Amino acid sequence: MPAPRVRPFRRADRDQLTDLVNAHVAAVVPGVSVSVNTVLSELERQPGEIVTDPWVAERATLVAEQHGQVVAGAHLLRYRADAEVGESYRDAGAIDWFVFRPPASFRPDTREAADLLMRACLARLAGWNVRAGYADGALPAPVVHGLPRNWPHVRAVYADAGFRHVGDTEVILLARVADLPRTEPGEHLAVERTVGECGTRLTVHDGGSALGFIEVDTALDRPERHARAAGLADIGNLHVAPAAHGTGLEHRLLAHAADWLRLCGVDRLVAYGTETDRTLPGHLTGAGFRELTRTDRGWEHRPG
């Protein structure tokens, strides 16, 4: 049986690599996939990362090939060392994402290829002589970041290579818009729709004072990338003024957001919380959301 080999990504690999990426995306968020063009574009630049992407000095994409097939892939970044770069990123390297198909009865064991690829990734980080080595699972798709619990095979490779989880754990929740609260007839609150920081902002006013707002992002991926994420939005911000705490305003804000999302043709809404923040996930699960997955953010290479 021929041994796997690791080599730089070639354009001819684009379809097989995209299939690998989409297999991992599908395990995290339902009904989402990305195009070949999306994957190729993200290998060159990450326009959605408006803060960190300009700090990248070098990029590398590696694949592991076995039996003539691409069975694993990884994308790496090296950040600049100058003062313009954020301190935690300065002179650091990262495995931005790492994917491989887990073993199955109908195909050869791919763990050997994955381990070989990981060794090549660590060798590339060492060759860059970076101050620190990080890892993530930030695939070019909505909602997929950190290391989702749905990828135990990737987690095992990271752990065996010396990466340790040092950051937070994020809870990702999903609701069908049809299951969200409905606005009540004759409600006296005024709703103002404006451009928000993280999407369209819906602000609730009572007698001229703002009680709270919710922001929903209905453009999780740029249309020219042809991602199959139609009907998906997320909550960018949800804020309730202290004076309105305990009044149920969170549910009313969600109801107004749901009205807007129905007009937009959106049928699913994503929200985020953390394991340490019990309040926000509690409000959301009581309003039609359910836990989709948990993802561990912040992995650092700490061998030994």
Automatic annotation (TrEMBL):
N-acetyltransferase domain: residues covered: 161-304
GO molecular function, one term: acyltransferase activity, transferring groups other than amino-acyl groups
UniProt entry tagged with the keyword Cell inner membrane: no
Name of the protein in question: Ribosomal protein S18 acetylase RimI-like enzyme
GO cellular component: ribosome
UniProt KW keywords: Ribonucleoprotein, Ribosomal protein
Source domain of life: Bacteria
Keyword presence, Thylakoid: no
UniProt source species: Streptomyces griseomycini
